[in-house]
Design brief:
36% of the residues lie in helices and 17% in strands. Strands 5, 6, 7, 8, 9, 10, 11 and 13 form an 8-stranded mixed β-sheet that branches. Strands 17-16-19-20 form a 4-stranded antiparallel β-sheet, with no helix packed on it. A 3-stranded mixed β-sheet has the order 18-15-21, with helices on one face. The chain starts with a strand and ends in an 11-residue tail after the last strand. By secondary structure, the protein is of the alpha/beta class. Mean pLDDT is 75; it is low at 1-35, 176-190, 464-488 and 497-547. The chain is rod-shaped and about 130 Å long. The chain has 5 domains: 1-35, no CATH class; 37-281, Rossmann fold; 287-359, no CATH class; 398-550, no CATH class; 553-628, Immunoglobulin-like, CATH 2.60.40.1120. Helix 10 packs across helix 12 (381-420) and helix 12 packs antiparallel against helix 13.
């Protein structure tokens, strides 16, 4: 049977119309689709003449079970009229059916011959299939006229035009089979000489005749039980492409059979090109759920579909025939879930690594623990290298930005002191305090800047950082080690202090210096520390005694694995977690981190003057019924 295609330049690989793996190759030939038919002959012989052979009650059941999976439209896909079932049949009827099977099958068809029953090897090593009539002579010799010789089966297969032939023998041979044949039988016979040929695959239940027989009371033989199960459940589809091939089915049966009877060794003897013959499809009960599983398998750890994964998904799409909208919705959902899970793990590692780097402790002391945590989080070395590089870059940018903010504040303070002297007016102090908050400077940093500015003022004029001329209130800014990049900053700040620009947001003036960073500390300058009792909003305008050494504050950094959280220290809200340090007097504190939908984190911490501590909070997401 063949059907022409219009307006298509191509020729199709001959495959069954109900198989989803048809592929068109573009050529200049006349386009046709060659439909491959599938034929099967299933024979089960349970009963034999009295005393000839032991009955095999499961044999007929085996053949019936095979018919069920073969004619199932979502499994074997064989047409019922193309499947012949014979039970307890005689020699003539069996030989005629075998001849008809291979004679009617065309070149591109599939012909499958299944036999469950006794097999016999005569004294010359020739194989026979026992029929309902098969007998033995009193001396135990086989009556060859009552059995079907394997040579007759081979002759019919050789004469056939069919290029895809499968033989399944679930048999117990009266002499060791195929041990004496597959390897050697008196040095003369081999299984390939009796049945195997090009495009042909021969399954045998066991290479040891003692284990091919079924046990009493079992509905199916051990071999056929797993053969049927592998197709019905789809477990034999090892590569999950929706098709069960010859080799996949053999591997599955062999694995399962040996779990029950380790000494039983199923065999597969295949000619060239037969390993990939498709025998059955895998039924899909819930296409959407199965496609979701395929998407999960196609994603990498970061939630991106791999190149090979995309090829697999395209195959699943062709197989199940869902609409494009359904496919894309499933892919977006599963990808988003995988990406979110990866990001959560990456965030936890980021917080941990950043916390270590911000403490200033040597990283080498934490390497072993970091690697253990990486493995526990399921992150690859390349993931953490990327995370760590990103954290180092962020910290460098933050340090540079913060240094520029300190320089801007120092410039404004110098100009204010130059214009008003050591005792600043309340309005100037208020403006400087507002500027401090806008820049995000701590009180301890402001104290250090103030002390440096006053120390600079005590230096000889030639060593000072800035020289100012009162004429016309024009400011001459000269920064050591720079090219005058702070000029615009000083001018703007001078105008601000002079004319009282109360409503001007200094950050919006974009006055940050650009270019090379400016060092405020000079060689030999005394180390300065902040007054631990200084709170934001309070300026210290009085001069510090030269003999007074203030107690440095402690620094507390609170990090967490989620964004959008809120932090309280001893019940006082301090905003969200992040890299900024909270400067506090030394002592014990209670830190609490909260976010809606997550369980709160709370821990006690003891701070030491002049030291920085990092609290890494991990918030666990609450179940939906507890989220509110």
């Amino acid at each position: 049977m063949r059907a022409g295609l219009k307006n298509v330049i191509g020729i199709a690989i001959p495959v069954p119309t109900d198989y989803p793996f048809s592929v068109l190759f573009l050529t200049h030939f006349t386009p046709y689709i060659y439909v491959m038919d599938k034929y099967a002959l299933l024979i089960g012989v349970s009963q034999y003449p009295d005393g000839a052979f032991r009955p095999l009650p499961a044999a007929v059941n085996d053949a019936r079970a095979m018919r069920s999976v073969l004619i199932h439209p979502e499994m074997g896909g064989f047409s019922e009229e193309n499947v012949t079932l014979l039970e307890d049949t005689g020699r003539v009827e069996m030989e005629a059916a075998i001849e008809r099977l291979f004679a009617e099958a065309k070149s591109n068809d599939l012909a499958l011959f299944y036999f469950s029953g006794h097999g016999i090897k005569d004294d010359t090593g020739q194989l026979y299939l026992a029929t309902f009539e098969t007998r033995k002579y009193p001396n135990g010799a086989l009556s060859r006229a009552t059995a079907v010789p394997a040579a007759a089966v081979r002759d019919n297969m050789d004469r056939s035009r069919c290029q895809r032939q499968v033989v399944i023998l679930d048999s117990c041979f009266s002499e060791p089979f195929p041990e004496g044949i597959a390897l050697k039988d008196d040095g003369s016979l081999h299984i390939g000489e009796q049945l195997v040929g090009e495009g042909r695959a021969v399954f045998v239940a066991s290479t040891n005749s003692r284990y091919a027989l079924g046990k009493e009371g079992e509905e199916l033989s051990l071999y056929t039980r797993f053969l049927v199960r592998g197709i019905e459940t789809g477990e034999a589809d090892r590569d999950e492409d929706g098709i069960i091939t010859i080799m996949e089915l053999h591997d599955y049966i062999g694995e399962k059979v040996q779990e029950v009877q380790p000494a039983m060794q199923p065999g597969l003897y295949s000619g060239e090109g037969s390993d990939t013959i498709p025998l059955a499809r895998v039924p899909v009960s819930d296409p959407l759920a199965r496609y979701a599983e395929a998407v999960a398998d196609a994603l990498d750890r970061r939630g991106e579909i791999t190149i090979t994964g995309r090829a697999s998904l395209d195959q699943w799409r062709r197989r199940m025939g869902l609409d494009v909208t359904s496919y894309e919705a499933i892919e977006r959902k599963i990808s988003a879930e995988r990406q979110a899970a990866f990001q959560e793990r990456a965030n936890e590692y980021t917080a941990l690594f950043r916390g270590i780097r911000e403490t200033g402790e040597p990283l080498r002391s934490e390497v072993a623990q970091l690697n253990e945590r990486r493995e526990a989080l399921g992150l690859e070395p390349e993931d953490v290298r990327e995370i760590e590089a990103g954290v180092e870059k962020e910290l460098a940018v933050e340090r540079e930005r913060h240094e520029k903010d300190r320089q801007m504040y120092a410039a404004s303070l110098r100009e204010a002191i130059r214009l008003e002297g050591e005792t600043l007016t309340e309005s100037t102090q208020a403006r400087l305090t507002r500027f401090q908050w806008e820049l995000g400077l701590s009180d301890a940093e402001v104290v250090r800047i103030r002390d440096r500015v006053r120390w600079e003022k005590s230096k000889p004029p030639g060593e000072a950082y800035f020289g100012f001329s009162d004429k016309g209130r024009i400011i001459d800014v000269m920064l050591i080690g720079t090219t005058g990049i702070m000029t615009i900053v000083a001018i703007a700040l001078a105008l601000w202090v002079t004319f009282g620009m109360d409503d001007v947001d200094l950050r919006r003036l974009n006055l940050r210096p650009e270019g090379s960073p400016v060092s405020i500390t000079t060689a030999g300058s005394p180390a300065q520390v902040a007054d631990e009792h200084t709170k934001p909003g309070r300026m210290h305008s009085h001069a510090q005694s030269g003999n007074e050494k203030p107690v440095p504050p402690a620094r507390l950094v609170v990090r967490s694995n989620v964004s959008g959280d809120s932090v309280t220290i001893d019940g006082n809200p301090v905003g969200a977690s992040g890299p900024e340090a909270h400067e506090l007097p030394a002592g014990k504190y209670t830190v609490r981190v909260e976010k809606a939908g997550f369980g709160p984190f709370e821990a006690g911490v003891e701070l030491t003057a002049g030291k920085e501590r990092t609290v890494s909070a991990r918030l666990e997401k609450l179940p939906p019924d507890h989220a509110n």
